[in-house]
């Protein structure tokens, strides 16, 4: 049952178990093309032994075999491993338990009307108390995300949600309720998940709640005009794509900083926890070595990460944003800059893909907006155009992203809060086929190798949580085979995939 305005990340604490021995054998397929669902590869299968089990993992190039040479004992003893879920995407039961509707209308909230004045749903509180207790009982440390894409509809209708400064106070009240009810056991909090996606998708492109935008519905929102996955809008709820993404993000930044201040002043000394934020970014590689393309990559980093990390580390937006967005970019008062400075906390990084960055001026005659303000376009990196890239997934890109954050933003404490890939199999296949996911094992292993390299280079990474624990609803894309547990969507029975067996062996030895 969906019972709270909370997304839970499950962090398995098996750090005391290590894998001391690991066999590795490389098999070539005599030049024949080998292709696995979900990970398009050619020519190489690596036989890897973990914890007494043998796994055949696909590689696109024999040079990548080094990225499979990683074991639990290569990481610090306090490094956390786990799998993440989101209440809105996996719990369901949208009409049960006293919930109030959210923008996505997939789940129920602990505050059905969105604010304390609307009353507290005790059934939701009881459910999460029980869940947290059960996690801890089973040796699992919860990391809790307070706001994961699910604005209470009541607040949207009352004052416009993220566009109104009232959100800051309501979010503070809600966060304090969670600290009071769960903070004796929950020691790791993320305030808001992927605020750049909330702002862009909800207020520039209109493809997620609240669906506000001011663009023609013929424009492509995701993909390219040649291969468009989703068009904008329809923009039938009003909006201003030139200004509202920046207003929404501005209030998100202030809300985060306000909650961090609240926790530090009232709860941290007794509860001894920490608060941070989850940010999503690709790694941006200059398309050429021209100064223009290098600058374009830098701007994309600013508009993705710096949009939030700049204010939360240094007290203001990146200079590249101020120069291009100009008076459409809200400003912080002197008092707010004091609040913001140093309020970042721990950072969750959601990483999936890397891309080229190329300089591109905004099209003449069109209103400026977030996507144009960057003066850059992204171009997909083709498979094996760079060693290790498959379907835009590039483990080395994660290492480079982590090292970029270290150098640019004072080496904050980092967790990889999401990293994973989807299955693309025929759902009518036999169950035993649907549970085989060696490509996911290869994906996770190679990313862990790169995280470990980043740690050796001084990056303060403290944990890795794969996305997702269960097959789930990936928002507008519908049901998705992204989990390490297979879910039969006809009856919601869960089955462990091969990756669960591997993950357990990796952690336990």
Quick rundown:
This protein is α/β, with parallel strands linked by helices. It is about 35% helix and about 20% strand. Strands 1-5-16-15-12-10-7-6 form an 8-stranded mixed beta barrel, surrounded by 5 helices. It has a 3-stranded antiparallel β-sheet with strand order 2-3-4. A 3-stranded mixed β-sheet has the order 11-13-14.
Average pLDDT, rounded to a whole number, is 87
Widest sheet, order of strands = 1-5-16-15-12-10-7-6
Q: Which CATH first-tier class would you pick?
A: Alpha Beta
Q: What is the percentage of strand-forming residues?
A: 15-25%
List low-confidence stretches. Answer: 1-41, 104-108
> Termini separation (Å)?
35 Å
**CATH homologous group name:** Glycosidases
Tell how many strands the DSSP assignment holds.
20
Shape: globular
Question: Could you outline the blueprint of secondary structure elements for this entry?
Answer:
Elements: E1 7-12, E2 23-28, E3 44-50, E4 53-59, E5 80-84, H1 87-90, H2 122-137, E6 140-147, H3 153-159, H4 166-182, E7 188-193, H5 195-203, E8 220-223, E9 228-231, H6 244-266, H7 268-271, E10 274-280, E11 283-286, H8 291-314, H9 319-325, H10 334-340, E12 346-350, E13 354-359, H11 370-373, E14 376-379, H12 395-408, E15 414-418, H13 431-434, H14 438-456, E16 461-467, E17 472-473, E18 479-480, E19 485-488, E20 493-496, H15 498-508
Helix pairs in contact: 4-6, 5-6, 12-14
Active site: 418 (nucleophile)
Family: Belongs to the glycosyl hydrolase 1 family.
Protein name: Beta-glucosidase
């Amino acid at each position: 049952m969906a019972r709270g305005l909370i997304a839970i990340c499950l962090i398995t604490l098996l750090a005391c178990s290590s894998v001391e021995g690991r066999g590795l054998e490389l098999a070539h397929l005599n030049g024949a093309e080998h292709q696995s669902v979900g990970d398009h590869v050619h020519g190489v299968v690596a036989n890897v032994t973990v914890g007494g089990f043998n796994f055949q993992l696909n590689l696109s190039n024999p040079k990548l075999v080094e990225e499979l040479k990683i074991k639990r004992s290569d990481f610090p003893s306090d490094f956390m491993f786990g799998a993440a879920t989101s209440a809105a995407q996996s719990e369901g039961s949208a009409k049960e338990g006293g919930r109030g509707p959210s923008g996505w209308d997939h789940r129920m909230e602990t505050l059905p009307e969105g604010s304390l004045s609307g009353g507290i749903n005790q059934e939701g509180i009881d459910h999460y108390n029980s869940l947290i207790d059960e996690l801890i009982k089973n040796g699992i440390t919860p990391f809790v995300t307070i706001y994961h894409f699910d604005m209470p509809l009541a607040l949207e209708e009352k004052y416009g949600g993220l566009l109104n400064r009232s959100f800051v106070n309501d979010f503070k009240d809600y966060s304090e309720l969670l600290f009071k009810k769960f903070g004796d056991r929950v020691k790791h909090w993320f305030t808001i998940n992927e605020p750049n996606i909330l702002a862009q998708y909800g207020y520039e492109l209109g493809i997620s709640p609240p669906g506000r935008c001011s663009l023609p519905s013929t424009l492509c929102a995701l993909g390219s005009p040649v291969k468009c996955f989703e068009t904008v809008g329809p923009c039938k709820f009003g909006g201003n794509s030139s200004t509202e993404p920046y207003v929404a993000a501005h209030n998100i930044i202030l809300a985060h900083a306000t909650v961090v201040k609240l926790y530090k002043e009232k709860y941290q000394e007794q509860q001894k926890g920490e608060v941070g934020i989850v940010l999503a970014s690709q790694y941006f590689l200059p398309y050429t070595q021209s100064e223009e393309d290098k600058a374009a990559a830098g701007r994309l980093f600013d508009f993705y990460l710096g949009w939030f990390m700049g204010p939360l580390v240094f007290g203001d937006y990146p200079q590249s944003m101020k120069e291009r967005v100009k008076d459409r970019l809200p400003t912080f008062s002197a008092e707010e800059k004091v609040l913001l400075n140093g309020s970042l906390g721990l950072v969750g990084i959601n990483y999936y893909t890397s891309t080229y960055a190329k300089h591109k001026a905004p099209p003449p005659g069109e209103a400026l907006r977030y996507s144009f303000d960057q003066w850059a376009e992204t171009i997909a990196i083709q498979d094996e155009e760079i060693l290790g890239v498959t379907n835009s997934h590039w483990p080395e890109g994660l290492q480079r992203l982590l090292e970029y954050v270290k150098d640019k933003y004072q080496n904050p404490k980092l967790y990889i809060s999401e990293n994973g890939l989807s299955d693309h199999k025929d759902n009518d296949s036999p169950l035993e086929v649907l549970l085989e996911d060696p490509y996911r094992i290869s994906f996770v292993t190679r990313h862990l190798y790169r995280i470990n390299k980043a740690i050796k280079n001084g990056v303060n990474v403290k944990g890795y949580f794969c996305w997702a624990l269960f097959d789930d609803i990936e928002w507008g894309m519908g049901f998705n085979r992204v989990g390490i547990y297979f879910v039969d969507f006809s009856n919601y029975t869960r089955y462990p995939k091969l990756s669960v067996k591997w993950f357990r062996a990796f952690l336990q030895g």
